[in-house]
Design a protein that fits this description.
single chain; mainly beta; seven-stranded mixed β-sheet; 5% helix
């Protein structure tokens, strides 16, 4: 069974930075795409940054572009999201997810039963 674990959330003042980490385990194949998503209560979950199963292209949402950086060594089961210049609008629960055999854009735009989610890590940005 594939399991996903995020870490690194917390509270920071506007303009600050945070680094999120994600690691998945239990996979017997190595063709997993990985992605970061976020959700605030009452809103839909949105894709923030995703990398496809074969890399290296990365999708960034419009709000993440220029401020967030996703990194993942090829074929590795660990991924990071470096977030800079945070604003209160970035406050959300951040989730890591993995899914086999999809491209970066598909990973961030479509969800299905094959997607495996972590339990999330809270990011709170004060004004």
């Amino acid at each position: 069974k594939v399991e996903v674990l995020e870490s690194g959330g917390g509270s920071v003042q506007a303009g600050g930075s945070l680094r999120l980490s994600c690691e998945f385990s239990g996979a017997t194949q190595d063709d997993y795409a990985m992605g970061w998503f976020r959700q605030v209560p009452g809103n839909e979950r949105e894709g923030v940054a995703c990398i496809g199963w074969s890399g290296p292209d990365i999708f960034y949402s419009s709000s993440a572009k220029g401020r967030f950086t996703l990194s993942r060594e090829p074929w590795q089961k660990v991924m990071f999201l470096q977030m800079a210049n945070l604003t209160p609008e970035d406050t959300a629960m951040y989730y890591c997810a993995v899914r086999r055999g999809v491209r970066h854009t598909t990973m961030c735009s479509t969800f299905d039963r094959a997607t495996v989610w972590g339990s999330g890590t809270q990011v709170t940005v004060g004004s």
